[in-house]
Description:
By secondary structure, the chain is mainly alpha-helical. The chain contains seven helices and six strands, in the order βββαααααβββαα.
Amino acid sequence: MEITEFRGEYAFLSNFYKSPVLYDGIAYPCVECAFQAQKCTDRDGRYNYSLENNPVRAKMMGKKEKLPDDWDVRSVEIMEDLIRDKFSNPILADALRKTGDAVIVEGNRWHDNKWGKCSCDRCRDKESLNLMGKLLMKIRNELNVVAAGEEFFTGPFKFDKLFQPLRDAMSVNTTRSKSIRMTSAN
């Protein structure tokens, strides 16, 4: 299966989806507002994006910013941090996990082949990096590993039961050691 649109049941995958995120001590209404804010070199400028509730307007504001010299590298790291924060929300994390092993592609028609895959006639044959899809799949895999670990410790196989005999033995030895020390001290 392949998810190629962040609409309908998959709208929650979009950076425009209203889900508060925290970045560098500032709360933003969605990932897009937070991401665009990071183009600003000063904290006051970033704070303005936290007040913008419309991700389309935030994106337009971001296009007017002079990009930092290292933006190409930093932008991917920033996006990963923001996406990870977004999916720390248990409801969204569960929704992402429920996409199973689907390939996630941020399909678009606005010529974005860095973060997604444009399907317009002009871009159809161009190579796509689909960085957004790759980040979402990476975080989904991490969430699945965490969930598998939680199931191991809390599921039908009780981890505590495995070590109970060892704890019992240690408790007996500790009690025995105390009584031996007390006896030899007298």
